[in-house]
Amino acid sequence: MSKLIIKNLHAEVDGKEILKGIDLEINEGETVAILGPNGHGKSTLLNVIMGHPKYVVTQGTVFFDDKDVLSLTTDERAKLGLFLGMQNPSEIPGVINSDFLRAAVNAKGEKPISTYQFYKLLDGATKELKMPFDLATRSLNEGFSGGEKKRNEILQMLLLQPKIAMLDEIDSGLDVDAIQIVADAIKKEKEKGVGFLVISHYARLFDLIQPTRAVVIVNGKVVIDGGPETIKRIDQTGYEFIKTELGIEIQKEENAMNTVSIGSCAVKEAIK
Fold first, then answer.
1. pLDDT exceeds 80 at position 266
2. Is the pLDDT of residue 126 over 60?
3. How many CB atoms lie within 10 A of CB 173?
4. pLDDT in the model for residue 252
5. Long-range CB contacts (< 8 A, 24+ apart) of 95-102?
6. What gap in Å lies between CA 111 and CA 133, rounded to an integer?
7. Phi and psi (nearest 5°) for 24?
8. At a CB cut-off of 8 Å and minimum separation 6, what does 221 contact?
């Protein structure tokens, strides 16, 4: 079974340290919810694992399938079986979505996929996500709505078939029906043994995909690694107990995150 092992991971961006000693292990087949106040390192962690050049690792190790992930290029990490669904996918004018997706599938495979096989896969995946097939003929993410961009990230995941998929607020910008569609796709991949690291501020997604663990990152460190009941507690009370029970002062707290539950965020989004 594949395992992602992160030890004492430190990383900075623009000279500012964000990750300050992350220790975490994720097994293939697990679904891990990543929680924590804004600005404390959740997205940074996923970007570092995938090799975003903006983030500089200053200390620590990341191993996957006994391979030193930090020594690999981003495409080599993808070939190992890692995938990142981005929070803000880029628009790339002039690059046709289907050409990009086919190139990604071919880059990961041992030999090029035939045109017939690729469009058969693409047709099945777009139907599963209830996406208009003509999105495949448009420039990558150009003119896509926020929800279309997020579903396009899940489309890539379905085509690439990773061992561990990291999803960074994949549910933001989705309406209630679209969240259900994305959750169903995640659950189907879970049944195949795919592992997930999922960041979200919305309780609804976690209710639908039923994580096996909950990890809370505060001040660039993992302060809680426990059961899914942690999600419910944060939904009901926010992050105040981190200070009162664990004695950890939350730095850079934004918008009184300790008073805003992930559930209330989801309700407001649904009302919109």
1. no
2. yes
3. 18
4. 64
5. 95/139, 95/140, 96/136, 96/137, 96/138, 96/139, 96/140, 97/135, 97/136, 97/137, 97/138, 97/139, 97/140, 97/141, 97/152, 98/122, 98/136, 98/137, 100/140, 101/136, 101/155, 101/156, 101/159
6. 25
7. -160, 140
8. 20, 21, 22, 41
| Closest CA relative to residue 233, chosen from 258, 256, 212, 251 | 258
Q: Token pair of 41, please?
A: 């390192």
Identify any residues that bridge with 13 across adjacent strands, giving them in sequence order: 16
Plot region of 199 (φ>0 → left; ψ -120 to 50 → alpha; else → beta):
beta
Tell me if 132 sits within 8 A of 138, measured CB to CB.
no
Which tokens in the block code for residue 67?
């391979």
Q: Quote the CA–CA distance of 32 and 2 in Å, as a whole number.
A: 15
pLDDT at 81 over 80: yes
What share of residues in the chain are helix, strand, coil (percent, to 5)?
45, 25, 30
b/e burial code for range 50-78 (CB count within 10 A of at least 16 → b): bbbeebeeeebebebeeeebbebeeeebb
DSSP state letter for 54? T
Rg (CA), the chain: 18
Q: Rounded to an integer, what distance in angstroms lies between the CA atom of residue 35 and that of residue 45?
A: 12
